[in-house]
Every structure is written in C-alpha cells, then in structure tokens.
Specification:
- It is built from no helices and 11 strands.
- By secondary structure, the chain is an all-beta fold.
- It has a domain at 14-83 and 102-127 and 149-160: AOC barrel-like.
- The chain is elongated.
Length: 161
C-alpha cells in the first residue's frame, strides 16, 4: 500500500534561518509529511538538527517496496520503512478504512547524496491514514480497485549524530 514512511537522518549540516550560518551537527530532528495515496504525491518538511524540505518517493526499492527515497533541496537519502506497521480498520457500512501505526525507520547506510552523503541515524515515525475504496456492482467494497480518495499524515522524531 503506498504510504509514507520517513526518516532516518544523521550528521547533516543545517542552516540557522535567523543567522544564515550552519547549525551544529547532531541533535534532534522532527519531520512532517503529507501523502495522497490516490495521486502518489508527497511533501515532507524537516526541522531541528535537519532543516530541509522535499518529496518522499515511496516504495522505490526492496522486495516488498519497503525502501523510500527522500529527495530534499540539499541532497537525498533512502530509508527502510519495513518496521512501520499501519493496521487498517474497515468502517462498517462504508467502503472506507482508517489506520494508525508507528515504528522505527532507519537510514540506509551509503544511500545519501549532497549534504546527506555521510548520514547515519534512525527515527520513530507515526502514520495516520484514511482510505476510500470503490463499490462493486453488488454493493460490496473493491479493496483491490483504484482508491477513490485518501490521505496520510506522517510525523517522526529522530536523532542525528
């Protein structure tokens, strides 16, 4: 299922917005991501020890599509979201499902480019989502069909070193 997963960051030079100077390496970062499972679009913002924004390319690699490529303004890196579990619960009488879950997300060593070329780290991410499936001719829900609507919101906190 195309959902966001985020974040594992590490020693990354960041910019202090107030002064325009590089911030110290290491520390805590936070990330926020919004996903549209229907269109496949994502937007991600990092604050704290990592200060950047861009796009999460979900499921770009891995046997179970568990590798995401995070492409930011100052470089890119890949994360493994295999431990991020989101159980879905069907809403009775409708073709909607909601879910919330969390798990660890680890940076893949050696996957970084640009400012993130030497990163190491991990984070804890939480996903909340809602999905709407089409109905079948018999009135059931087609959970294998193209989604009609959906939204996922991801937050994460991690530490870079």
């Amino acid at each position: 299922m195309p959902l966001a997963a985020i974040l594992a960051l590490a020693a990354v030079p960041t910019v202090d917005i107030a002064s325009g100077q590089a911030a110290s390496n290491g520390g805590t970062f936070h990330a926020w991501e919004s996903d549209n499972p229907v269109s496949g679009t994502t937007s991600i913002v990092f604050t704290g020890a990592v200060n950047d924004h861009g796009v999460d390319h979900i499921g770009v690699a891995g046997e179970h599509h568990q590798i995401n490529r995070i492409v930011l303004q100052n470089g890119s890196f890949e994360v493994n979201v295999a431990n991020l579990n989101v159980p879905l619960h069907a809403a009775p009488g409708s073709c909607t499902a909601t879910g919330k879950g969390s798990g660890s997300v680890a940076l893949l060593p050696g996957s970084g480019t640009g400012a993130y070329s030497t990163m190491t780290g991990t984070s804890r991410a939480t996903i909340t989502e809602v999905l709407m499936f089409p109905t079948t001719a018999s009135g059931g829900c087609d959970t294998n069909g193209k989604l009609l609507a959906g939204f996922a919101w991801v937050t994460a906190t991690g530490h870079v070193s």
